[in-house]
Amino acid sequence: MDERPFTKTELMICVASRLFQDGTTAFIGTGIPMLAAMLASKTVAPNLVPVFEFGGMGAILENLPRAVAESRTFHKGLSATGICDIMETAARGFIDYGFLGGAQIDCYGNLNSTTIGEHDHPKARLPGSGGGNDVGSLCWMTVAIMQHDKRRFVPRLDFLTTPGFLTGPGAREAAGLPAHGGPINVVSTLALMDYNPETCRMRLAATHPGVTVQEVMDNTGFELIIPDHVGVNEPPSANELRLLREEIDPERFYI
């Protein structure tokens, strides 16, 4: 057994994996969401049905995919279709969760993965939406997984790629998006956040071990709701670390 202390990335993966519900469908993005899905399928959600943008549904994730379009996202799957079929499946309401990343997030869970700075004269051009807008618009519940600092947790996005709660209560429905959907959690390198059901604003749910509430606040560029009780996330278990290091990502591609 590898006895190294766990890293922030490993902790983030473990916290994210515990959010998956068994017997549900989940749209999985590239990178950390893939590791979280694989860990969940080996622990809390053995009947998870992973869904990938380019047509793989229900794959058995025996080996870590490097991208959403490669063969391992179809391995022993329930179906192998294409991007249009997958997006239609989401539009019909058959995909429960969407797990996403982004370069920026605001207090309402809106995400930017398109550009930093002015769109036509950017400081940096990012990968873009891919299926991110569709996932945020059409999956019933979305979870963002990202680094935590003021450059990323911002008061205003440079570009709106993926809708969260847009401008607050009722805004998703007013924009024509399905009712009762939207972001439910953010897993960062510092904490786990959820959203206040009345205001739709981001709320601190639990800090990671060794992280203070003040540290989370100091690294957030907007006013984060701080409830009377803030929990502390459980550290990775020995079994979770073994699975991550020996079975899921033994080549240390991500961890």
Q: Indicate the structural class.
A: alpha/beta
Highest CATH level, the class: Alpha Beta
Strand % is 15-25%
Distinct helical segment count:
7
Give the low-confidence spans: none
Largest sheet: 8 strands, mixed
Order of helices and strands: HEHEEEHEEEEEHEHEEEHEH
**Looking at this structure, what is the CATH superfamily?**
Glutaconate Coenzyme A-transferase
Mean pLDDT: 93
What is the CATH-assigned architecture? 3-Layer(aba) Sandwich
* Cα-to-Cα separation, first versus last residue: 16 Å
Number of DSSP-assigned strands: 14
Radius of gyration: 17 Å
Lateral arrangement of strands in the main beta sheet: 2-1-5-10-11-12-13-14
Measured as a percent range, the helix fraction is: 10-25%
Description:
There is one protein chain. This protein has 255 residues and is α/β, with parallel strands linked by helices. It has one domain (8-248): Glutaconate Coenzyme A-transferase, CATH 3.40.1080.10. Helix content is 22%, strand content 21%. It contains 7 helices and 14 strands. It has helices at residues 8-17, 32-41, 83-91, 132-138, 171-174, 213-218, 238-248, and strands at 25-28, 49-51, 56-57, 79-80, 97-100, 104-105, 111-112, 115-118, 121-125, 141-146, 182-188, 191-195, 202-207, 231-232. Strand 1 (25-28), helix 2 and strand 2 (49-51) form a beta-alpha-beta unit. The model has no long low-confidence stretch (mean pLDDT 93).
